[in-house]
Amino acid sequence: MGGYVDRRGPSSGIADQLEAHVVTFTDGSRRFALVVLDLICVNVDLAGAVRHALVDLGVDESWVCATHTHSGPETGCRPRGAETPAPWTEVCAAAVRQATRDAVAGELSGSLTATTVAVAGVASVRSRPDGALPVPVDLVSFHTGHLDGALVVLPVHPTVLPAGSTVVSADLAGAVRRASAERLAATGRAPWVVVVTGAAGDISTRGVRRGTDPDECDRLGRVVADQVVAPRSPASPRHRRRSVATTPS
Q1: 3-state DSSP call for residue 164?
Q2: Are residues 225 and 136 in the same domain?
Q3: What is the pTM of this model?
Q4: Mean pLDDT within 42-55
């Protein structure tokens, strides 16, 4: 497993599945794919393999990123990067290729709204004992007359599970995905949800978490979902709209 230098031993089980998500955008002439993988990191060779796998699927440009979970496979997370260990280059490229096929096949014409929400109770400055603070979470909502999907950008290190944990998990990103999907499903529809880890810097859950187990992941996921995807008033901060054709797998 990757993520912690002082972790002892291999994985002992699965708390929740690691996932590959793809959201595609097209203007009818060119297509962009946002690829989000539940990994500790994405190195140059893995990003290149993913991009190569998408060439014949009509993808002109792509961004390949990791949620930075510390409870997944070791993928060569070193200063200045490293070669991705086998078999993860091939495994990830194949998963992304299938996800992209599904995304392209299901593209819909619609619009998006970009909103920034100050979220409390999920983040703190790691280097300060009193560092709890609200963080700006970006929410990009995709609409085709109704809400079809949500892209959440959360600038918090997903490190609820500690080095002593040996279960595979998407950690905080996965918990926010699940909780957000549950909140949105309560409206009678089932919009898709993709969670990206933003520029976290020195920000993690260290000063606000009440435990270091999957249950605490789930609690923090609900904390975020209740503030980000729950219904908000028209006074919610910073809305921007533009047309887009998009769908994820």
Answers
A1: coil
A2: yes
A3: 0.91
A4: 97
